[in-house]
Amino acid sequence: MGTSSERVISHFKEQSIGCRDLGSPFTAALCEAIAEDVEAGGPCEALIGNWPGNPRKDALSMRFCGALHHGVLTGQADALAAHYPKSRGDWELAALWPEARAYLASNIDVVRDFIQSAPQTNETRRSIALLPGFLELSAKYGLPLNLLEIGASAGLNQNWDRFSYQTDTWSRAGDSSVLVSTDWHGPPPKHLDATPIVTARAACDLNPLDIHDPDKVLRLRSYIWADQPERLARFDAAVALARASGVVVERADAGLWLKQKLASRPAGTLTVIYHSVFLQYPPRETIRDMTETITSAGEAASDDAPLAWLCFEPEALFGGTKGSPVMWSRLQTWPTGDIHIFAHSDGHATQLKYLP
Predict the structure, then answer these.
(1) Which residues pair with residue 183 across a beta bridge?
(2) Is the Cα torsion angle 29, 41, 82, 123 positive or negative in sign?
(3) What is the C-alpha to C-alpha distance for residues 93 and 72, in angstroms, rounded to an integer?
(4) Which residues pair with 258 in a beta bridge?
(5) Are strands 171-172 and 145-150 parallel, antiparallel or unpaired?
(6) Which helix (H) or strand (E) holds 80?
(7) Chain-centre distance of CA 310, in angstroms?
(8) Which ranges constitute the DSSP H helices of 142-228?
(9) Is 162 helix (H, G, I), strand (E, B) or coil?
(10) Predicted local confidence at residue 3, as pLDDT
(11) Contact status, residue 250 vs residue 203, Cβ threshold 8 Å
């Protein structure tokens, strides 16, 4: 077995542990089965055994599990669908895997084409990891917000201010049916009664998915783990809200787009650049260029045109432990340049430790 296959197997086994920790025993079992099939030289090995890139950075497990789920959602894999959690709450891998293997073997070209694209989950739960930052900015500056989201996918998180938020210790009502919840540790967010006023919203992505296209929506939905009905329901509600509110995501390189937007940001508003689980995907050069663009714009910020950079990203990207799965909620503001790490969480924001 080649080195490439060994990296793929290791990635899927690692992802299996992560899925189980994040409450998806189904996807965990699926990742284990895929790893074993690669090792055994089955159809999975033919499809991904010689994956040319870095399986972890490319989120290969999400691509591959998404391909199976997509077959189920589109009706191309009816025999497999009969064993998925939506059809069988008592699913069994022993019954499901032969059908999955058969689907992969007979649809190699379809699956190979699907996994060429980077996955996009547009996870709306991550908004709760950004919310304290938005509230802090609104309370501190008292200015309308000019929002710039990069890596926005389909733009579902542009409506963060309209979501309802619910934890065991606090809640915040929104004017939509999107409900975001998490296992919150720590006191409630500061300025929970603040009312952010959004004067403009803009967003970009290299490959924005049109929420008005049913096929694109199914593709987005396929990346959500099939045994997590709460996430699936929240996704459906967020899509309906985005359609109703006229969300737009521009197709653009984030670095170039930011340069253009920041060069013409309006006075009398607080411009907020924000993103969630995005920075781990672009090349290092792109990350460096974006950071320099933001920093340069920050140095030119003034009291009547302040700038904020709000994100939810792996701690390793900002000086934390290398290879750590922990995400930081980070806020930097200018003209002062102050930095505040205000929360730690997992990638899906299922458990969040607030650091006021």
Answers:
(1) 351
(2) positive
(3) 16
(4) none
(5) unpaired
(6) helix 78-81
(7) 15
(8) 214-222
(9) helix
(10) 67
(11) yes
In 3-state terms, what secondary structure has residue 250?
A: strand
Are 243 and 217 in contact by the 8 Å Cβ rule? The answer is no
Q: Rounded to whole angstroms, how far apart are CA atoms 96 and 79?
A: 9
- Rounded Cα distance between 274 and 312, Å, is 8
Displacement of CA 233 from its chain's centroid (Å): 16
**Residue in the block written with tokens 């709460």:** 230
Locate tokens 């969630």: which residue?
276
- Sign, Cα dihedral of 161, 205, 309, 123: positive
Type of residue at 88: R
> What is the distance between the alpha carbons of residues 16 and 248, in angstroms, rounded to a whole number?
35
Q: At 250, which amino acid appears?
A: E
Q: Mean pLDDT for each 10-residue chunk of the chain (356 residues)?
A: 81 96 96 97 95 92 98 96 93 96 96 93 94 97 97 96 98 97 97 96 94 95 96 96 96 95 94 94 88 96 96 93 92 97 95 95
Provide the pLDDT for residue 1: 47
**276 DSSP β-pair partners:** 312
Distance CA 190, CA 174 (A): 17
E-strand stretches of the chain: 145-150, 164-166, 171-172, 179-181, 183-185, 198-205, 250-251, 270-276, 307-314, 327-334, 338-345, 351-354
Cα first-last separation, the chain: 50
pTM of the model: 0.92
Q: Pick from 44, 104, 48: which is nearest to 77 by CA?
A: 104
In angstroms, rounded to a whole number, what is the distance separating the alpha carbons of residues 324 and 318? 12
Residue with tokens 């009547």: 304
The two tokens of residue 34 are: 């895929």
What local confidence, expressed as pLDDT, does residue 283 receive? 86
> Among all chains, which residue has been given the structure tokens 């990350």?
287
